[in-house]
Amino acid sequence: MKKFWNSRWYDNKWFLRIASLVFAVFLYGMVQASSPSVTSLSNLQQVVSVDTTETISNVPVKLGKHDDDIFVSQLQETVTVTLTGPKNIVSSLASGNLVVQTEDLTGIETGQQTLKLEIPGLPDSVKYQINPSRVVVQVARRKTVTVPVEYEIEEGTIASGMEVGNVTLNPSQVELTGNEENINKVKRAYIRISNTTAHNRTFTGKFKLQVVDADNKLLDVNANVSEVEAHVELNAQQRKTVNLVVAAQGESNSYRYQYQLIDASQIALQGSASVLENIRNIKVNVDVSNLTSSATLKGQLELPEGVTANLSGPVSVAVTVTPITTDTSDTTSSTPAASSSSAVEEAPTTPNQNGGNANPGVTEENNANPGGQDVE
């Protein structure tokens, strides 16, 4: 025996190889003995469905069956749904187009109503909970009208020096549907044309449709479109220089009046060609009703709508007032009459028909001042 241990058998490589082989065969046998249970578990998972629960948010709510002549408002747009059932079915429903609808509304009365929510068409193996399970709505008679679309252009949308030409809207009219009370309140349907930067050329854009009442308050009605396309044509504005004319109010028969423009005798205008074509001069309105002696007054420019000018604010006008004396010794004398302000306005003017000076911002001082003559 002593000789056997002294032979160091555990250092013999052949012995170690044989021992390793025996141990490997032993392990293989153990694995094979346990494999039927592993296979059974795999097969079990294939034939048995495990129940699961899944919660889905923002599920849309639609109307159930209803009469065509009713309109339902204040209906909640989305709800939360919890599904419980076979995992494969629940997963399929959760990833699909799940829809919640109201109960059948056929023959429902008008006014405030509480409606039950449900999910039709689910398998019997799937249970569900809807939160909230009921909604409070307003039921009214339905009415539909067709109205034209109007537009507004916000200040700052059009660049300086440009004017709006033709505006084409698509669609030019919309169909509105709602409860009869709200539809009867409709004043207009319109869009607000705007942009973050001013346009200096023709442009096209889509803008949100708004439906309002007489107080410009939004109405709860449905339109067949939510946006309207607007094609806005822009044209460069024209320029024209014309004379300033003093238009006096409140003249007295006891005085003579003479008017002299101090700041400028002409004004450079900018606007559409159709408007500028009809402008011959621009009035400077002054009130002399309380004037009994010479003074300098501030006159107000009377600019037509849609026209801008190189002058802004009041215009200084020198008014010379002279009392009229009556010679009582002359029995044939008559009472002098002061001319009206219209005589001042009709003083000869020579409007610039070619668009004015090369620099319309520069005014000219000259002695041919309209209204610069004596007025009696």
Automatic annotation (TrEMBL):
Gene3D superfamilies: 2.170.120.30, YbbR-like domain (2.170.120.40). Signal peptide: none annotated. Residues 325-376 are annotated as: Disordered. InterPro entries: c-di-AMP_regulator (IPR053154), YbbR (IPR012505). It comes from Abiotrophia defectiva (Streptococcus defectivus). This is YbbR domain-containing protein. It comes from the Bacteria. Residues 325-350 have a biased composition (Low complexity).
